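Example S7 (structure tokens).
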């Protein structure tokens, strides 16, 4: 469905963005370091459930915009590019200090799962990010926009499971010191910022 170049770029971007320090992966790291790998994997499943909700909502909304108003999509495109540049600025400005909370109250697996879902679903920035991120990889000439968006959303979720699962495994195995590497966090922040800038420029150039 997607050209190999687009598929590779999208998957690479997903992996880099999943690695970028943020509240979701730091929460996975904290719970894994404190309560073990299973806790981190449960949190990851909850977060990905939230991503699924956002992905479905954005998929049908963006499809409607594509089909009804080119002007509306153009406006949305520039709003999305502005938001991506804002995320880049925030990443470059980050101090690089991992603010992992090592005093999180121990929770049951059910509560951990629900915490992951709620953290993701109630964050409107996730929907805004999906609105900015997914459409630039969609080509109306290649068939159903809905199917393309759902496919991309599924790839994003798989990459998130892979990266967050890896974080849970490592943190659960080696402990909380993984979250205290200031140098590694700074490098990830700069990589993420560069990715956001590149995506913003690419989105602006999309016709």
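Recovered sequence:
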């Amino acid at each position: 469905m997607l050209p190999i170049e687009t598929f590779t770029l999208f998957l690479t971007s997903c992996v880099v963005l999943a690695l970028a320090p943020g509240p979701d992966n730091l929460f996975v790291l904290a719970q894994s370091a404190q309560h073990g790998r299973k806790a981190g994997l449960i949190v990851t499943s909850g977060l990905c459930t939230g991503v699924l909700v956002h992905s479905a909502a954005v998929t049908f909304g963006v499809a409607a915009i594509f089909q009804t108003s080119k002007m509306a999509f153009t406006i949305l495109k520039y709003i999305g590019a502005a938001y991506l540049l804002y995320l880049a600025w925030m990443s470059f400005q980050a101090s690089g200090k991992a603010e992992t909370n090592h005093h999180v109250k121990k929770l049951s697996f059910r509560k951990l799962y629900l915490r992951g879902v709620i953290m993701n679903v109630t964050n409107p920035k996730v929907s805004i990010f999906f609105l900015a991120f997914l459409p630039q990889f969609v080509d109306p000439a290649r068939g159903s926009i809905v199917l393309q968006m759902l496919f991309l959303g599924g790839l994003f979720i798989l990459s998130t499971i892979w990266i967050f699962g890896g974080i849970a495994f490592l943190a659960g195995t080696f402990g909380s010191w993984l979250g205290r590497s200031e140098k590694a966090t700074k490098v990830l922040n700069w990589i993420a910022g560069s990715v956001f800038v590149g995506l913003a420029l690419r989105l602006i150039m999309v016709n």
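Notes on this example. The radius of gyration is 17 Å.
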